[in-house]
Design goal:
Blueprint lengths: L1 H24 L2 E2 L7 E2 L1 H6 L3 H32 L4 H12 L2 H12 L3 H26 L2 E2 L2 H24 L8 E2 L1 H27 L19 H33 L3 H26 L6 H23 L2 E2 L2 H24 L1 E2 L1 H20 L1
Helix pairs in contact: 1-5, 1-9, 3-4, 3-9, 3-10, 4-8, 5-6, 5-9, 5-11, 6-10, 6-11, 6-12, 6-13, 7-11, 7-12, 8-11, 9-10, 12-13
């Protein structure tokens, strides 16, 4: 029964994104001008450049705050349905951090901005891993759990490798260099299996009386609000996520066009950094309080969600083309993950020197993608 509730929330996320996207993007005819079509993309494409920047910021705000409201409303409903807090933390709260990336990638794939769909995810993963954790380590030593070293990082490498293989081979599709419907189903299936496994080991550990640290996985972390307000948060949050994703994609595409930049570069930099800023700010605040024990585990978990859930949903809805730059960036992500794995496995912690090295590697990578 609990898994049924979880599936309900997963379906609600994807269905709301598609339905609301169609509402805003299906061409609608004016009454007086029958042959002209109007939608948000036209307005952004014809707006002054300064206004486009404002729209991009608005898109980020809608994505981030919409995800917060959606998670808060969904968590409250789940708690009223007596779903254990651990399960809520591992599903609704964990997925909430990837909702902005989901909205951007789904919107990008539907509107044919395939480069942005993939680069947004890969860029977010690299930024989370190298900058968020690197900055945390420069402020306070990040202790690394044994499970993160032995289970989470290896699994994140498997996910990145799977994306690389499916992207190149195009399993189940007519041609390679494509993430098609069948590839999306594979990702979603792997994501469901991952969630089921994490819930299973968390409940087992809880029964054995072991201390479990899961973000948003305690009764104190979950606010209980009224049912009408919860429904309003869920619907309003989903609408904000969907609209924010559309606006972000349109604004990013317009900026790329005006500045002569590729959508891949925009996705790897502006969009991925914008959707990851809340994690960076939260991590810096936690580091100042010396509360960063879960930082690396959370970043690795977010990277797994981004690949399996975000690209799974996006490619299952609309096939995504893979270009050579995406393959290179995926290889960089794998190399960076191995570097962090070595840093974490050597001393079971990531210190200031390692943190500085991680940020420096990201800066070098950023320079490379700008000049390539």
């Amino acid at each position: 029964m609990r898994l049924m509730y979880i599936n309900y929330f997963q379906c609600a996320i994807s269905l709301n994104l598609v339905d609301i996207h169609e509402f805003f993007y299906i061409p609608r005819k004016k009454k007086k001008q029958k042959n002209k079509e109007i939608y948000m993309g036209d307005f952004i494409n014809n707006a002054p450049f300064a206004l486009v920047i404002v729209f991009l910021i608005i898109g980020f705000v809608l994505l981030i705050k919409g995800a917060d409201f959606f998670v808060e409303g969904s968590s409250s409903v789940a708690k009223r349905l007596h779903v254990p807090s651990i399960i809520i933390g591992l599903t609704i709260v964990a997925m909430g951090t990837s909702l902005p990336e989901t909205a951007v990638s789904v919107s990008a794939s539907i509107t044919g901005n395939n480069e942005l769909a993939v680069s947004n995810v890969v860029g977010s993963n690299i930024f989370n891993l190298m900058v968020v954790i690197g900055v945390c380590a420069m402020i306070a030593t990040v202790n690394v759990a044994k499970e993160t070293i032995k289970r989470d990082i290896p699994f994140s490498l498997i996910c990145a490798g799977l994306l690389l293989i499916l992207g190149i081979l195009g399993v189940g599709d007519k041609s390679g260099m494509m993430l098609g419907h069948f590839d999306g189903v594979i990702f979603i299936g792997a994501f469901a299996g991952y969630i089921f496994y994490m819930i299973k080991i968390a409940l087992k550990a809880s029964k054995e009386g072991k201390k479990i640290e899961i973000e948003g996985g305690s009764d104190e972390d979950i606010k209980l609000i009224s049912v009408p307000l919860s429904i309003l948060f869920i619907i309003g949050g989903a609408a904000a996520i969907a609209v924010g994703g559309d606006i972000t994609v349109d604004a990013a595409s317009r900026i790329a066009s005006d500045l002569g930049m590729s959508q891949t570069l925009i996705g790897l930099t502006i969009v991925s950094i914008g959707t990851s800023l809340p994690e960076l700010v939260t991590s810096i605040v936690a580091a100042r309080k010396n509360e960063v024990d879960m930082a690396l585990g959370n970043a690795i978990g977010s990277n797994v969600f981004n690949i399996l859930m975000v690209l799974g949903i996006a490619s299952a809805i609309s096939p995504i083309s893979i270009i050579t730059e995406n393959i290179i960036d995926l290889c960089v992500l794998i190399v960076f993950t191995i570097c962090v794995w070595i840093f974490a496995g050597t001393k079971k912690k990531i210190g200031r020197i390692e943190g500085f090295s991680m940020v420096a590697l990201y800066v070098i990578y950023a320079v490379y993608i700008i000049i390539r």
